[in-house]
Amino acid sequence: MSKFTRSLLFKIPYMLNCQEFEEFIDDYIDGRLPESVGRKVYLHLLACGDCRSYIAAYKRSIEMGKALCDKLDSEVPGDVPDELLSVVLKNIKRR
Ligand SMILES: [Zn+2]
């Protein structure tokens, strides 16, 4: 998109600026925005390369966080019986 087109887009009266855009990012990613707002956010994304890379980095960090949680969940089962734990601990101490 040319600089000229971009500057035109920013002249649209309901165009969000970057600050307003940031406030909507969470809801935008979760798809919780009403359509009218979602369209504004989308328009801003089209026009603003900064926010495009910002949202890409944001999504990546969310995915990394989720992946980390999944990993923790699968590696540390929440329902280990106490007896099993104490047996394991004893064995460790014996070494
Ligand atoms: Zn922006």
Per DSSP, what share of the residues sits in E-state strands of 2 or more residues?
under 5%
Ends distance: 66 Å
| Whole-number tally of structural domains | 1
Bound chemical compounds: zinc ion
Which word captures the global form? rod-shaped
- Kindly state the number of beta strands: 0
How confident is the prediction overall: mean pLDDT? 83
Major sheet description:
none
How is the topology of this model organized?
Layout: H1 3-9, H2 18-30, H3 35-47, H4 49-75, H5 82-94
Helix pairs in contact: 1-3
This protein binds zinc ion.
Question: What does this protein look like?
Answer:
It is a single chain. The protein is an all-alpha fold. It has one domain. The chain is built from five helices and no strands. It has helices at 3-9, 18-30, 35-47, 49-75, 82-94. It is rod-shaped and about 75 Å long. Zinc ion binds at residues 18, 21, 44, 48, 50-51.
Keywords:
single chain, 95 residues, mainly alpha, 5 helices, rod-shaped, binds zinc ion
Summarize the structure.
This protein is mainly alpha-helical and 95 residues long.
